[in-house]
């Protein structure tokens, strides 16, 4: 590194440290803020975003022009663009978060112990959350809203291609926070597009309690690799539907087709279909026809290809592939044990479903499949914070510690113990 | 590194990888094991430990002799030694774990959603737990018991000074597991005293889900620094009692004296006493007398020394010091806000207590102090898995993610989502 670069890096490190310190201070005020105050801030921000629609659109225009000049692809430019509808959706999202119950301060399991003390648990914010994301600027508003409602300060680092849009949104968020009497530093958007800022953020253990990356696999892998702070994440969604011996053919067809074709690019889309050998000859032709009709490319194991002709061979690599596209791997397995073994070995511990009418096998599948969501007779596409009733979702975790599955407000909090006594001491 | 050393390190790496692979395989069987089978294994191990008391004592003798030769201090030798009573305590501990409710498989919050699916959560084991500890060989048995009951496989790495004792215990544990029909690999004790084995264990992300270090601060700091796997830990116990304006003098005296003097060397012992300025002149002389009578050395802030004469000055460093000894720092603070500020700034987020009769200040202290246990009118010494009714404790966590406070069986498990449908698909 030459002296100029080193100096620059030191400067960014210093700026990020300052951002972190401010976030930590603001997090204390957020943690003790009343539900009413937090909701007032959410509603104020929603109003400001609507009121400033023209100014936001003008800033967004700058990003779009820069994107065009830099040859950003049309799909990315589309994601980046503000429209009146998208601005309304952002504001509406904040109003929905305001309407959700406040998880903070809830006390549970408060019981008397033989010593005479009462012991219970109180739900409290995590503190400071760092969120690293890519092009969609609406994440700035969503993430800020969820962190605010759950009593956490946050540091947001969006994609450089949305720099002006994010900065304009950040100004609005700060204004709304201050209008409600909360510290503006509770939501800070990183003010530089320099990559070094991400590295600095991922090292600030003393100021940041958890990192949530939102974006493609590359981003998430990089963040997980580099972070010294715990990360809430999922890398892959290699989801399965297993059609069991005891499956109802109509339900199998409905669930499998929905799991694959309702949307191709989502992490809870089925990527591999497993079929029990005992029903393969009966079920596979019907299933294959339905997929082919939808334009899905099929890749099968040897047994599958003996039943369904004219499809490509699935290789070992197909079992771990997240296609995110109209492609499906199919494998015939010997039964429940082989299906569970396949899922636990090749899957990504995201979401897996069995189609069966057999009570015992449904019960075993639920217990033995080691995934963040395990389903019976339901489409994997249901694995989602809104569908699960969390009200909102900051992401899906396939990790085991802390949050697992869709992460809503509760996943941004933790439990501390509280003890109530009356001069009690330990003997 | 020369070729011989490199070869040795590679060999240990290979052995540890093999241990990890076996643990992962065993963890699947453990996760689906019935409560009755797990309890049978716990009782079988307890019986074997009692039956083999003589053989265990003979192996322990080897460690004690080696320790004497290596000049191990008397206190450490004492911790290391098996006696008939200690062997009985180990067996009894296992029987108590067998009597605890099984957390695995419990389903909670199973509710119908508007789409027609039922969504709930099932408690499941974490998978494979790595435990790194120092001299006491009883940890081998305790930790194995807690992991077994919570459906987890474990890899145990004890101190080299307890090598023979741990190996003999491991043989007994394996025999008990196999007697109950569970895989012997569910509990593996690392078979080498080489330090490289610890490093290898801390890097095996694919085979180990969480690391629990048990021992002194040095060990825990080293493990946290080096581990690529999430760690459940606490580094320090800098616990506070705050005597509020509204404190009952009798309760203040009782709680503060118990918090400091009931035991000096535990992590939930008070290390700093905070007293509100408004009651300092009244309370401090009585409190100081009581501590001096117990032989506790006092170090005070300027205001404290103006009231209690002849005590040393507390420096900035005293506010963050975990004495683990008959030494107490005392600070006069301006009131509740200053007390909370002091605790959140200098404390270790372990356990802090307020003594007060004031309803509003008790309520604020409970919410605003950012510690794993927050108490009102109770001694900090209560922060303990048994006192909290967890039945047993593998450690205390001052981290925020996953487990916070005393960690019992539940802390060794996680929640996955389950979805029950009847051919439901997403529209």
Distance between the termini of chain A: 62 Å
Strand content of chain A: 15-25%
Q: Can you tell me the CATH superfamily of the largest domain in chain A?
A: Aldehyde Dehydrogenase, Chain A, domain 1
The total tally of domains of chain A equals 2
CATH topology of the largest domain in chain A: Aldehyde Dehydrogenase, Chain A, domain 1
Q: Biggest sheet of chain A, open or closed, and with what strands and sense? A: 7 strands, parallel
Query: Into which percent range does the helicity of residues of chain A fall?
Result: 40-55%
Radius of gyration of chain A using CA atoms only = 25 Å
Oligomeric state of the chains?
homodimer
| Unreliable stretches covering 5 or more consecutive residues of chain A | none
Order of helices and strands of chain A: HHHHHEEEHEHEHEHEHEHEHEEHEHEEEE
* Strand order of the biggest β-sheet of chain A: 10-9-11-8-7-12-13
CATH class of the largest domain in chain A: Alpha Beta
EC number (chains A, B): 1.2.1.41
Domain Aldehyde dehydrogenase (chains A, B): 16-291, 319-383
Function (chains A, B): Catalyzes the NADPH-dependent reduction of L-glutamate 5-phosphate into L-glutamate 5-semialdehyde and phosphate. The product spontaneously undergoes cyclization to form 1-pyrroline-5-carboxylate.
Pathway (chains A, B): Amino-acid biosynthesis; L-proline biosynthesis; L-glutamate 5-semialdehyde from L-glutamate: step 2/2
């Amino acid at each position: 590194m030459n002296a100029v670069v080193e100096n620059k890096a030191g400067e960014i490190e210093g700026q990020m440290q300052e951002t972190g310190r401010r976030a930590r201070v603001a997090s204390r005020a957020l943690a003790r803020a009343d539900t009413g105050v937090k909701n007032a801030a959410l509603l104020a921000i929603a109003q400001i975003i609507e009121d400033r629609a023209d100014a936001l659109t003008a800033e967004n225009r700058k990003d779009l022009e820069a994107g065009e000049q830099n040859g950003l692809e049309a799909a990315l430019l589309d994601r980046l663009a503000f429209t009146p509808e998208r601005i309304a959706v952002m504001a509406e999202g904040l109003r929905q978060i305001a309407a959700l119950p406040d998880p903070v301060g809830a006390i549970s399991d408060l019981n008397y112990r033989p010593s005479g003390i009462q012991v219970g648990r109180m739900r409290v914010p995590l503190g400071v959350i760092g969120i690293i994301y890519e092009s969609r600027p609406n994440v700035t508003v969503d993430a800020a809203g969820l962190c605010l409602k759950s009593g956490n300060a946050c540091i947001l680092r969006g994609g450089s291609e949305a720099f002006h849009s994010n900065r304009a949104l950040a100004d609005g968020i700060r204004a709304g926070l201050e209008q409600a009497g909360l510290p503006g530093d509770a939501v800070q958007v990183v003010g530089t597009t320099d990559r070094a800022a991400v590295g600095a953020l991922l090292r600030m253990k003393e100021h940041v309690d958890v990192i949530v990356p939102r974006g493609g696999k590359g981003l998430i892998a990089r963040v997980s690799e580099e972070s010294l702070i715990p990360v809430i994440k999922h890398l892959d969604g290699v989801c399965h539907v297993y059609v069991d011996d005891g499956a109802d053919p109509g339900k199998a067809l409905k669930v499998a087709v929905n799991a694959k074709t309702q949307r191709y690019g989502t992490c809870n889309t089925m990527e591999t279909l497993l079929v029990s050998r005992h029903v393969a000859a009966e079920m596979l032709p019907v299933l294959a026809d339905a997929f082919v009709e939808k334009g899905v490319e099929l890749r099968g194991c040897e047994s599958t290809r003996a039943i369904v002709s004219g499809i490509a061979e699935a290789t070992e690599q197909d079992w771990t592939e997240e296609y995110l596209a109209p492609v499906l791997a199919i494998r015939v397995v010997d039964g429940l044990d082989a299906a569970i073994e396949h899922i636990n070995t090749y899957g990504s511990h995201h979401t897996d479903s069995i189609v069966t009418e057999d009570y015992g096998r449904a019960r075993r599948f639920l217990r033995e499949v080691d995934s963040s969501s395990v389903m019976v007779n339901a489409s994997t596409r249901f694995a989602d914070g809104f569908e699960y009733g969390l009200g909102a979702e900051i992401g899906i975790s396939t990790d085991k510690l802390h949050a697992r599955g869709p992460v809503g407000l509760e996943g941004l909090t933790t439990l501390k113990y509280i003890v109530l006594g009356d001069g009690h001491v330990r003997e």
